[in-house]
Write a structure and sequence with these properties.
This protein is mainly β and 266 residues long. The protein has a single domain, classed as monomeric porin ompg (Porin). Helix content is 10%, strand content 58%. The protein has two helices and 15 strands. Strand 6 and strand 7 form a beta hairpin. About 3% of the residues have low confidence.
């Protein structure tokens, strides 16, 4: 797996787009910074591929997860935007549970809506709040709970020079009464974008299951490059993830992440 990952990362790091003017470079830098903002007024279509291993009672299982994550902004008025963020997981496992072969299917979909002011505050903060829904799209109990859930989500961030820092959070509970869902998601992030549209990010995507009283804490270290392909801006991201905390049969150690994001600026 690591050979494939290193080949992907080498492509991301050494990709050589055509030379651009200073004005185009500044526009690319600004677009790259918008990608660091989860509720930017920018339509995008990320395909995020994650690899995790050392899963199961004997640490022999592995998992690929392709998150299809369209982000669609809507202008409600001159002062307010509505940002739709969808996460549809496509999952492939091997050796989960122990001794089983390869299985593939869909996970549960997470749909978030953020109501956000069109302009940042006087101190430079951007924020958004709204509902989050858990949709029972999983095709197998190994890939999701298969039940309806709902809750609240929020995000706050500040962009200061090349830096972007902030956090996103949500809490989802069961709405049908057929299962006990109570889960909190926390995503702090810190990004640095260069004038040549490289972005370096460290983040966590921690989940706390209040029912099981268990944490899952992957830490992601990724680098992204915004390029122009046939007039279309595309972002390529590659990096590693480390599981600082996991459930008893969850992934352990190092994993990998690769993302291709199609952008649709206005």
């Amino acid at each position: 797996m690591m050979r494939h990952f290193l080949a992907i990362l080498s492509f991301v790091v050494f990709v050589n787009p055509n030379a651009v003017s200073a004005q185009e470079s500044a526009a690319a830098e600004e677009l790259a910074k918008q990608l660091s903002n989860p509720i930017a007024d920018l339509a995008s279509f990320p395909f995020q591929l994650n690899y995790d291993e050392n899963i199961g009672a004997d640490d022999s299982g592995s998992r690929w997860t392709l998150n299809v994550q369209p982000v669609i902004p809507f202008r409600l008025s001159e002062d307010w935007n509505l940002i739709s963020r969808t996460i549809v997981p496509i999952i492939s496992t091997d050796g989960i549970p122990t001794g089983s072969g390869t299985e593939s299917g869909l996970g549960d979909t997470v749909q978030s809506f953020f109501f956000s002011p069109a302009a940042a505050t006087s101190s430079g903060w951007t924020w958004g709040v709204g509902p989050v829904l858990l949709l029972p799209t999983s095709t197998d109990s190994r890939f999701g709970v298969g039940e309806w859930g709902a809750g609240l989500t929020g995000v706050a961030l500040r962009q200061q020079g090349p830096w972007t820092y902030g956090g996103l959070a949500n809490h989802i509970v069961d709405v049908t009464g057929s299962t006990d869902i109570s889960s909190t998601f926390l995503q702090p992030f810190l990004s640095y974008t260069t004038p040549t549209a490289w972005t370096f990010t460290v983040s966590s995507e921690s989940t706390y299951d209040w029912t099981q009283e268990q944490w899952s804490v992957p830490i992601n270290l990724v680098v992204a490059k915004l390029v122009n392909i046939n007039g279309r801006p595309v972002s390529f991201t590659g990096g590693a993830r480390y599981w600082a905390e996991s459930t008893p049969n969850g992934p352990e150690g190092w994993g990998a992440r690769f993302v291709v994001t199609l952008l649709f600026p206005k």
